[in-house]
Design a protein that fits this description.
By secondary structure, the protein is α/β, with parallel strands linked by helices. The chain has three domains: 3-96, Rossmann fold, CATH 3.40.50.720; 108-316, UDP-N-acetylmuramoyl-L-alanine:D-glutamate ligase (3-Layer(aba) Sandwich); 325-465, Protein-Tyrosine Phosphatase, Chain A (Alpha-Beta Complex). Helix content is 31%, strand content 26%. It is built from 14 helices and 23 strands. The chain has helices spanning 17-28, 44-50, 82-90, 97-106, 120-133, 203-216, 230-233, 287-302, 307-316, 343-356, 382-386, 411-420, 431-441, 459-465, and strands at residues 8-12, 32-37, 55-57, 70-73, 94-96, 110-115, 139-146, 151-154, 160-164, 169-171, 174-177, 186-189, 222-226, 242-247, 254-262, 265-272, 275-282, 325-330, 333-338, 362-366, 391-394, 424-427, 447-451. The strands form four sheets. A ten-stranded mixed sheet has the order 8-7-9-6-12-13-14-15-16-17, with helices on both faces. A six-stranded mixed sheet has the order 18-19-23-20-21-22, sandwiched between helices. A five-stranded parallel sheet has the order 3-2-1-4-5, sandwiched between helices. Helix 6 (203-216) links the parallel strand 12 and strand 13 (222-226). Helix 5 packs across helix 8 (287-302). The relative contact order is 0.08.
Length: 466
């Protein structure tokens, strides 16, 4: 069925970040949209409610009615799901979330895709904002909440659609990565490391996925890749498009220079193959975010934007919720929230916060919550990442019963290793006990960085309230 013939669309597992964004896009594009989920909570439940999209609690076969033209199945549900079974029995047309993005929003537009193990959400958000602030009116779909838009999606009015390209699987009937659906005309690749241990067995398997992705980029297009990343170099053999690198080290096509951080802004210059293009000022903390911004600037200059347009957007970028976000300041203690859960992201985030709050004592409170961080795979890597902090607290694993005991991360072992390296580290399993410990030990001037890929029991506000 063609998009023009479809009126009524139903999403199974509608409250996932990407699925809720897709539901909002479809509603904004004029379709009747509804769906269901077992886990209905903010911010996605609020987004759907504000968009006037009805959400049914739980999965029941009665929800699948004869007037549905198309069902979009989220990757959170399996073939045994009661609603999926009803869809199959009724012979209704169904598709995956990434295939729906392509089908409804990419035809006749330039598809700009940001991918890589780290920095996808920030880079996609920044690219979307630069295009918006310069009047290009892009569509976008991002796995985070953009403060400039107070949203995670926008229906396109212009020629561009920006997608956060995820290597995670698409649906129970399509185990390929989502990013293989996005028909990229141009792309940014921020780096490749091992992640998603629940679906990938090895780094080589992840590289294979990226090789397939790189081969899809339009021959007339470009891929901007992080310079000096050996894993990226291993996948570029399949590229038929132009390949350009960005980074701080000599040899990068787009070279970052003159970096400094001052009063909440990162300042840097950008040169292309030895010729200086412009100076930029970014309203974010961290050398790694300047690197993400350099990739965005390089791509936008190639799309025909001016350096002034790009710099103006960089200065007015308000950031993303849950990315080095200041939750509050109480009695001189600053509490920040961040999504970091991979050792590399943890280290880069801690370094950025250290730089932004010089001379202040930094606490790192980490909840192993993602499918990979709860596994042993990074048990040797977490200590060195967390050492950047002055004090470390590791919480108990989220839903440990979902990980086989022999595969499970041992937080106590990470803390033991940190102590052996001279770090003041503690394993405190429960949120309320962490809050009590912080009330006893935090002092005015301290910076508390809370890192989790989930809600972490509302610990940020509990610490501030205490």
């Amino acid at each position: 069925m063609k998009p023009n013939d479809i009126k009524n669309i139903y999403l199974i597992a509608i409250c996932g970040t990407g699925m809720a964004a897709l539901a909002g896009l479809l509603k904004g594009a004029g379709y009747r949209v509804s769906g269901s989920d077992a886990n209905i909570y903010p911010p996605m439940s609020t987004l759907l409610e504000n968009a006037g999209i009805p959400v049914l609690p739980g999965y029941r076969k009665e929800n699948i009615t004869g007037d549905i033209d198309l069902v979009i199945v989220g990757n959170a549900v399996s073939k045994t799901n009661e609603e999926v079974q009803a869809v199959l029995a009724a012979g209704l047309e169904y598709t995956s979330f990434p295939a729906a993005i392509a089908r409804f929003f990419l035809d006749g537009r330039k598809s700009l895709v940001v991918t890589g193990t780290h920095g996808k959400t920030t880079t996609t958000s920044l690219l979307s904002w630069v295009l918006q602030a310069s009047g290009r009116k892009p569509g976008f779909m991002v796995g985070g909440w953009l403060k400039n838009f107070d949203n995670n999606h926008q229906v396109p009015e212009g020629n561009y659609f920006v997608t956060e390209g995820d290597e995670y699987d698409s649906a129970f009937f399509d185990k390929g990565p989502k990013f293989l659906h996005y028909r990229p005309d141009a792309s940014i690749l921020t780096g490749i490391e091992f992640d998603h241990a629940d679906i990938f067995d090895s780094l080589d398997q992840i590289k294979d996925a990226f090789r397939k992705y790189v081969s899809l980029i339009s021959p007339e297009g470009v891929i901007l890749v992080k310079h000096a990343d050996a894993n990226i170099q291993d996948v570029l053999g399949e590229a038929v498009c132009n390949v350009e690198s960005y980074g701080y080290l000599d040899g990068a096509d787009w070279l970052i220079g003159d970096y400094r951080f001052e009063s909440g802004y990162g300042y840097f210059s950008l040169s292309y193959q030895g010729e200086k293009k412009a100076d930029f000022q970014l309203a974010m903390i961290g050398r790694h975010n300047v690197e993400n911004a350099a990739a965005v600037a390089a791509l936008c200059l190639q799309l025909g934007l001016t350096a002034d347009e790009i710099n103006s957007a960089f200065k007015t970028f308000q950031g993303i919720k849950r990315r080095q976000e200041v939750v509050g300041i109480k009695n001189g203690i600053t509490v920040l929230d961040d999504f970091a859960h991979h050792p590399t992201a943890i280290r880069l985030t801690l370094e950025a916060v250290k730089e932004a709050y010089p001379g202040q004592r930094l606490w790192a409170i980490f909840e192993p919550r993602s499918a990979t961080s709860r596994r042993k795979v990074f048990e040797q890597d977490f200590p060195d990442s967390l050492l950047v902090a002055d004090r470390v607290i590791i919480a108990g694993l989220f839903a440990p019963e979902k990980i086989n005991e022999e595969e499970r991360l041992d937080p106590g072992q990470v803390v033991t290793c940190l102590r052996q390296k001279g770090c003041d580290a503690h394993f405190i399993e429960e949120v309320d006990d962490i809050v009590a410990f912080m009330a006893e030990n935090a002092e005015s001037g301290d910076v508390v960085l809370v890192m989790s890929s989930g809600g972490f029991g509302g610990i940020h506000q509990k610490i501030l309230d205490r």
